[in-house]
Structures are given as C-alpha cells and as structure tokens.
Amino acid sequence: MDETIGLIIKAKEGSESAFSKLLTIYSPLLHSVSKKYSSMCDCQQGEDFFQEAQIALYNAVISYDASISGITFGAYAKTCIRNRLVSLVRRIKSKKRTKNELEVSCEAPSPQDAVVWRELGEKLLALAETTLSSYEKMVLALYIKGHKAGEISKQLGKSEKSVNNAIFRIRSKLKKTALS
Predict the structure, then answer these.
(1) Could you report the average pLDDT of every consecutive run of 10 residues in the chain (180 residues)?
(2) What range does the domain containing 86 cover?
C-alpha cells in the first residue's frame, strides 16, 4: 500500500496528523497553484487563495476513491484545487464587475445633460398621459416617488400582484410607444 493512500485512509477516518502530513507533502502544489490564481485577480488575497487550496485538498482527500484505476491522488487533488480556485477567481471578478457597474458619478450634470434629461422626462410623462390607464398612472406616480409594490398596493387598496402587473404593463407600453 502506497504511503499516500495510507495517509488518505487515516485522514478519512479523522486523523488530523495524517491530514497534516498530506498538507506537508502537497504544500508546494498548494503554494504554486494559489499564487498562480491569486495573481489573476490583481488582489492581495494570496492567503485566502492558499486557504481555499487547503480546503480543496481536504475535500479531495474525503472524496478520493482509490479503487478507480488510472487516477492518482496527486492528479485528482490538483484538479480539485484548480477547480475551487477558478471558482474563487470567478466570484471575485464578478463582485468587482458588479461593484463597478453600481458605481454612480456624484458629479452634477452639465447644463446640456440637465436639459436633455428634462426633455426626456417631459416626453416620457407625455407618453404616459396618452398611453396609460388611470390606474396605471396612479401606480406610476407612486412608483416614481420611490414606493415599492407592497406599499402601492396598500395605498390603492389593490393586491400586490395587481400592482406588479401594472408596473410590467407600464414598462411595456412606454417601451413600445417610445420605440415606435
């Protein structure tokens, strides 16, 4: 029986010392892979990547099946570590994208922009006046003031579903009218 397989079996049985030995054996792999993937994020989270790599190694130990021929533990562990770190990179990049998309400029609009926005608002209100029902106009007025569908439903004595449907119809009508 291979020494690594013996350590894996003991680690699966709960031996912390066996897992510590596996960590020591695979430490160079953990460091190199975590360094590689942390550099992809342009961030200072190298320790986080190393910890994620250790967790992936532990999961690989628990899920490794030595009876499957042709798959060494080293190759299996490397794949598990790589997959976990790729997922971590994706999560980090997704958060950065979302954060960048949510950033809004706090600068005052230029006079030209203010005129354009006012004209667009006036056109939108004119479209709303001619295309929406009286109920949809009431919903739109409250929605523009920042009220949520639940609040609007209470104020108008309608179900929240009815208000959500009205908001959907308002958007659809205004888009269709604006595009034509």
Answers:
(1) 82 89 91 84 73 90 83 89 88 72 59 80 81 90 89 93 92 76
(2) 3-102
CATH number at residue 96: 1.10.1740.10
**What is the C-alpha separation between 109 and 98, in angstroms, rounded?**
23
- Domain's final residue, options 45, 71, 102: 102
Which residue in this structure is represented by tokens 């130990």? 61
DSSP letter for 149, please. H
Residue that terminates a domain, selected from 73, 102, 131: 102
Q: 121 near 172, Cβ under 8 Å?
A: no
Statement to judge: residues 24 and 64 lie in one domain: yes
Same domain, yes or no: 9 and 89? yes
- What is the per-residue burial (b if ≥16 Cβ within 10 Å, else e) of 36-52? ebbeebeeebeeebbeb
- pTM score above 0.70: no
Do the Cβ atoms of 41 and 89 come closer than 8 Å? Answer: yes
Q: How far apart are the first and last CA of the chain?
A: 75
What are residue 173's phi and psi, to 5 degrees?
-65, -45
- Are the CB atoms for 34 and 49 separated by under 8 Å? yes
